[in-house]
Amino acid sequence: MTRIHPTAIVEDGASLGADVEIGPYAHIGQNVKLGDGTTVGQGAMVDGHTSIGEKCQIFPYALIGMKTQDLKYKAGSTSYVEIGDRTVIREFATVHLGTADGERTVIGSDCLFMAYCHAAHGVILGDHVICSNSVQLAGDVHVQDWAIIGGCAASHQFCTVGRHAMVGGMSKIRQDFPPYMLGDMVEGSLKVIGPNVVGLTRRGFKREVIQALKEAHRFLYRDGLNRSQALDRVENDVEPYDEIKELVSFYRDSQRGVA
User: pLDDT at residue 185 above 90?
Assistant: First the structure.
């Protein structure tokens, strides 16, 4: 049964699924769609053309579907926020609409977007992504499936963080960060430390795949090769598991360069 607190505001036109719960003083805009079993906590605001999936939890004072902060926004443009199923948006997090007509800001399914995190216009998070407290994602940042970003990290616009990567807290993400790797701040710059061994092991990656990623990391970062030489060595000398092919493609396709 859907429950709406008497002090909450749900504008005409909003679409609420079954068993939705809206807390005190929350505000749901007219173009919002909430999936079955989703809860919106006290004082939270969901506005704009925003679609939230099933069994999501929107914690108190989160703001979703607000107008972009991008100064290129033109009044009258219609843009979107899309959030998948079972995703948790914690207290005071902000998820903004896109800038241009039709642009989407997307947070996938089974994500955890902790307190005070910010997703700017056009940010796309895959599934199972974790952003720890106060992560700040500038416009058009992409964070791929299963990536984890540590607290207070911030990303320059247009950067991509690859699948199953883990970026340490307080990091400045100024270039793309490769999949399957672990990174941390060293002397003021984000450095690739090595494969994300603990995370990959927990997710059931085979030992031989992790070993192959270690070999790829050695060629890319420790053997003194330039990037082109290193990628050639990885392609020729490392067992061609799908993860290795994905890693090589990530480097070759990067538009901003890789950390």
Answer: no
